[in-house]
Please model this.
Amino acid sequence: MEKLFYGNHMRIGVLGGGQLGRMLIQSAMSYDARIEVMENALDAPSAHLAHHFVKGDITAYDDVLRFGSDKTIITVEIENVNIEALETLEKQGVKVFPQPRVLRIIKDKGLQKEFYAAHNIPTPPFRLVNNAKEARQELDFLPFFQKLRTGGYDGKGVRKITTVNELDDDFDAPTVLEKFVDFEKELSVIVARNEEGQVVTYPLVECEFSPKLNLVEFLFSPADVSCELERSAAELGRSIIEKLDMVGILAVELFLTKEGDLLVNEIAPRPHNSGHHTIECNYTSQFEQHLRSITNQALGNTDIILPGVMVNLLGADGYEGDAIYDGMNEFMAQKGVYFHVYGKSTTKPHRKMGHVTVVHDSLLEAKRLARIIKDKVKVIA
Ligand SMILES: Nc1ncnc2c1ncn2[C@@H]1O[C@H](COP(=O)(O)OP(=O)(O)OP(=O)(O)O)[C@@H](O)[C@H]1O
Ligand SMILES: [Mg+2]
Model:
């Protein structure tokens, strides 16, 4: 039977209506694949673009069950969803990708770490504690990163602890204490797997984080690493998605240590910030690849067309309200500059409001221009 993933017979539901869902819809349109979205906020980035939009709480059992029961496939654009409902849907014959059991592991940074340990996946040493009091008993482990096991995102829920005085009661919840890694750089490899078990990996990218905000500021493609390291990262990515027996797209965030070893920081079973450049820079974007993998199509070529740099457009400090993209005009005529505005009506400090991808034959040139754009384009109110 011919496999089609477009038209009326294939109902694809997405939990979450943010920018990732929005860019998924953008790629789905090329195939007339119809995306239906559930999300609570009526003004979410993908709400008005979905083939069908349902207002609902993605963390509520009844809402997720109701939304999913008439779908062919359910996927997510955020891990914080009701997994019990997804398990029920799976039993009813709805295809849920990534699978609920994978979401259950990844949603909890503690279970993620235990998964790495159980499968010999290299990761920084860690300890699990249940509350602030227990964390204060692990002083021999300093310096470490303390991470909320659930609910953190974009650097919120993560903090570096160097001395005992920093262990206040802000994180009085189950957390992972992860040994501080004095890394050389941060890298990311994206892999995708379809139901037949075909796997593809994207070339490694290099992420430059804002140390203040703990979130990605710049991303460089390709990463400046040896072929050998490129191969090890691809093998590591492939082994993780296979050990998870997962269908969909998986982003693997890595630390490259000063000794040249790769350690897994964390994984995300969905399109990821470190893959946005693939829209312009690679033959198949991460969004199209996700769609292909969950619908069990042949996976697309992941090679690089041109080097590129991705810059996140974050809400500027001190502004809250109707968003204005100040300074954007100046770069609109530049060759190789692609703006993506997510359509969030209000800006807040550090909120992800959009991104820019700069492509150029020379990565050095792309970096130069991207840094200027980062300085000059401000999301204000
Ligand atoms: N053990 C560590 N050693 C050194 N730096 C770390 C460590 N853990 C985290 N970091 C820094 O903090 C950043 C955010 O950590 P992590 O990826 O765990 O948080 P997150 O909030 O889930 O991230 P995301 O921005 O991907 O949503 C990392 O990318 C890295 O720069
Ligand atoms: Mg991260």
Remarks:
- The chain is about 25% helix and 30% strand.
- Residues 124, 145, 147, 152-155, 157-158, 178, 180-181, 186, 209, 214-215, 253, 265-266 surround adenosine-5'-triphosphate (ligand 1) (CB under 6 Å).
- The two ends are 53 Å apart (CA to CA).
- Residues 15 and 40 are 10 Å apart (CA to CA).
